[in-house]
């Protein structure tokens, strides 16, 4: 057990381990606009960060009152993969932090296993979490419901109250709080994460190893 009483560190993936969100949001906005669903990068970031893909697609179809074309997701994914391969970087300072944290750690994300493995492999972080990756696709409901966090704690044989979660989105913070876990919010502008229940908000990843 760490000096803080934590026994497990659970990391969200996108925006916490890898800096994928600006790339994914840009591609999503460009592809939607091209298909006749005009939306800006800023609007995508504001409306969809932290939500599962299924939820995002439902919101879009409801907002524009028309279905997305069948090949939309396929094309979006192809473009995403190409851009991630060219541009993706780990979150600044995360390599050092993962080396310094001695507590057990795992990943719990609203992304698919395929995406999590892909981005962690691209950024050289996969070896830190091999066999300890949990997706909202493993459970009935995505964040903001607590399911994926409770599933991760159960798989890692840890009581939720001894878990600390590192999150960068409001739905993620809400999910971890609903699971009865302590949340550290990683954000440049943390007011929304504090309001959602984050105990601490920090904006330099290298601070994390001193806080756990």
The average pLDDT score comes to: 94
> Total strand count, please?
6
**What is the N-to-C order of secondary-structure elements (H for helix, E for strand)?**
EHHHHHEHEHEHEHEH
Helicity, as a percent range: 40-55%
Number of helices: 10
Widest beta sheet: strand line-up: 3-2-1-4-5-6
> Could you name the ranges where pLDDT drops below 50 across 5 or more consecutive residues?
none
- Please indicate the percent range of residues in DSSP E strands (runs of 2 or more): 5-15%
Helix/sheet category: alpha/beta
Gap from first CA to last CA: 10 Å
What coarse outline follows from CA principal-axis ratios?
A: globular
Radius of gyration: 17 Å
Question: Strand count, sense and closure of the main sheet?
Answer: 6 strands, parallel
Overview of this structure, please?
- The protein is built from 10 helices and 6 strands; from the N terminus they run βαααααβαβαβαβαβα.
- The chain is α/β, with parallel strands linked by helices and 212 residues long.
- A 6-stranded parallel β-sheet has the order 3-2-1-4-5-6, sandwiched between helices.
- The mean pLDDT is 94.
In short:
This protein is of the alpha/beta class.
List keywords for this structure.
10 helices; 212 residues; alpha/beta; 6-stranded parallel sheet; globular; 12% strand
Question: How would the blueprint of this fold be written?
Answer:
Layout: E1 8-11, H1 21-34, H2 41-48, H3 53-64, H4 72-87, H5 94-100, E2 105-109, H6 113-122, E3 133-135, H7 147-155, E4 163-167, H8 170-178, E5 182-186, H9 191-196, E6 200-202, H10 208-211
Parallel strand pairs: 1-2, 1-4, 2-3, 4-5, 5-6
Helix pairs in contact: 1-2, 1-4
